[in-house]
Design goal:
By secondary structure, the chain is an alpha+beta fold. The protein is about 25% helix and about 45% strand. Pfam families: SnoaL_2.
């Protein structure tokens, strides 16, 4: 079984290749994506995740993420990233990935305004 770090790195690499199939392989069927401060998940389930990334991200030619820093604490991986191709200018975010049983179960995405 892959470590939390390996799982998160695989999804990061697939994101930058805009490879939806490889990207989705790293998530649980019951993935929940939160965008604080909202207490409710923005995305629930792998199907909804696939639809969002197919329609809102992987269709953007300039999409890419730069890993600024990464910290691993148990089964959580904290990625500070710079994202291009979504907005007019790059933006920064902190993505916290919770990994269990070799799959990402939960993501909290904190975006700088």
């Amino acid at each position: 079984m892959l470590s939390p770090l390996e799982v998160v790195q695989r999804q990061f690499d697939a994101y930058n290749r805009r490879n939806l199939e490889d990207f989705l392989a790293n998530f649980s069927e019951n993935i929940k994506v939160f965008r604080p401060p909202s207490p409710e998940p923005a995305i629930v389930g792998k199907r909804q995740l696939a639809e969002f990334y197919a329609k809102e991200r992987f269709n953007r030619d300039a999409l890419r993420a730069e890993l600024v820093s990464r910290t691993v604490l148990g089964n959580k991986v904290f990625d500070f990233e710079r994202i291009w191709g979504v907005r007019e200018t790059p933006f920064e975010m902190m993505a916290v990935f919770e990994v269990q049983d070799g799959a990402i179960q939960t993501i909290w995405g904190f975006v700088a305004d």
